[in-house]
Amino acid sequence: FHAQCSQRLQAPRMDLCHVPATREKGWYLALMAPNVKGPNYAWLDPSRLYCHPQGLQDCVADLLQPFRGDAIDVVAGIDAMGFILGAAAAATLRKGFLAIRKAGHLCVQTVAQPYTDYSGREKVMEVRTDAIAPGLRVLLVDQWVETGGTMRAAIELVERLGAVVAAPLCVPTGVAAICIENSEGGKWIQERYKCSHCVPAHLQPRFDQHQ
């Protein structure tokens, strides 16, 4: 059984062993899979990147590099894919992890924030009120920032509870995602908060155009 699993993991379609000789920033972006199911789905699926041990480690390292030396009290990940990178970042930093959930899942006292996601759907996110104290320095992590609606709602949510999320003159914690697109919402976030992402500058236009 273990031999069969090993063979499957090393198959050409999902080679978890290959690491390029020169690991430039963003090399692991090539591990992501394009959409093959049509317009009702995201244009790119980053989850295959998380299956690659070195790819995941380098992705998290690149996301955290701008925050090295910064005072961070807790890492918060946004439901659902932000949980993966957020928890990995928290473990790397030896900090706690706070889950920002879609509404209706938490059985404790929460505060809620409505938002519109990248697909135009109206949703509500919530966070437990006992985890955030005034002045808490939060690093917010999500998989992707497309229109910026989800991340902006998360920022508003934790700031309502008194946390600090990378305002330019405040303690520099902030926002991290594999890609922050140069949409109106993405620009709003980058102009106001310290941000980190993994897309090299020469590839950013292609990501913005979903190519």
Mean pLDDT across all amino acids: 90
Which stretches are poorly predicted, pLDDT < 50 over at least 5 residues? Answer: 4-11, 166-172
CATH top level label of the domain at 64-208:
Alpha Beta
Q: Rg, please?
A: 18 Å
What would you note in describing this structure?
The chain has 211 residues and is an alpha/beta fold. The protein has a domain at 64-208: Rossmann fold, CATH 3.40.50. Helix content is 29%, strand content 23%. The chain contains seven helices and nine strands. A seven-stranded mixed β-sheet has the order 5-6-4-3-7-8-9, with helices on both faces. A two-stranded antiparallel sheet has the order 1-2. Helix 6 links the parallel strand 8 (174-180) and strand 9 (194-196). The longest helix is centred in the first third of the chain and has 12 residues, at 53-64. The chain starts with a helix and ends with a helix. Its EC number is 2.4.2.7. GO terms for molecular function: adenine phosphoribosyltransferase activity.
List keywords for this structure.
single chain, 211 residues, alpha/beta, Rossmann fold, 7-stranded mixed β-sheet, two-stranded antiparallel ribbon, 7 helices, 23% strand
Quick structural overview:
By secondary structure, the protein is an alpha/beta fold. It has helices at 2-9, 47-50, 53-64, 82-93, 149-160, 184-192, 204-208; strands spanning 33-34, 44-45, 74-78, 96-102, 110-116, 122-128, 138-145, 174-180, 194-196.
